[in-house]
Amino acid sequence: MTGMTQAPASYGLRERKKARTRAAIRQHALALFREHGYTGTTVEQIAEAAEVSPATFFRYFPTKEDVVLQDDFDLITLAALEAQPLNLPPIAAFRAAAAMVRAHMTAEEVERFTETTRLTLAVPEVRARALDELIRTTDEISAAIAARIGRTADDFDVRNTAGAIIGVIMTATMPWQASGADVDTMFDRIDAGLAHLEAGLPLGEFAPPGG
Could you tell me which of 116, 137, 154, 188 has the fewest CB atoms within 10 Å of its CB? Predict the structure, then answer.
């Protein structure tokens, strides 16, 4: 299998060209962030480095923050989710999709994923924009789950399940970033969180304080 973020072979020439342009903009942006810092880099500098106009930049990324946040992993995970057997319950299917994505990540993609995760948590502007991305991602996961089970994407139970999956990923990712652990550890935490969610979030035997 080729690198995860490469355009599928079924894409037409125009789609592949757009994917290459998008990847080039992101690559140059991250290089400039490393050299000058996030706040010290402008959209104009990114566009110049990628040899595109600022208007073209904004066609691919609505804001500078989106260069960090929109890394295509959501699209790849959703495609992997769609490929799972329909007899798998939604959470089990998402867990299998996440494992599939992890198994095919290249070293370059692991490095980029680590870098964008750190930027997301460290840069206030990116962290604030991430809320919009969480809403968008929840919408997309809801739509994918709904398609699997024959419901609508605005079904409350469907959105609740999507929100729980997002919550597990956030809970697993934030301590990983703080501890400085590697990407494999982070994915292990996500898988463990999804397994806990799939089991119904058991907390063991409950004993009330003072009981």
Answer: 154
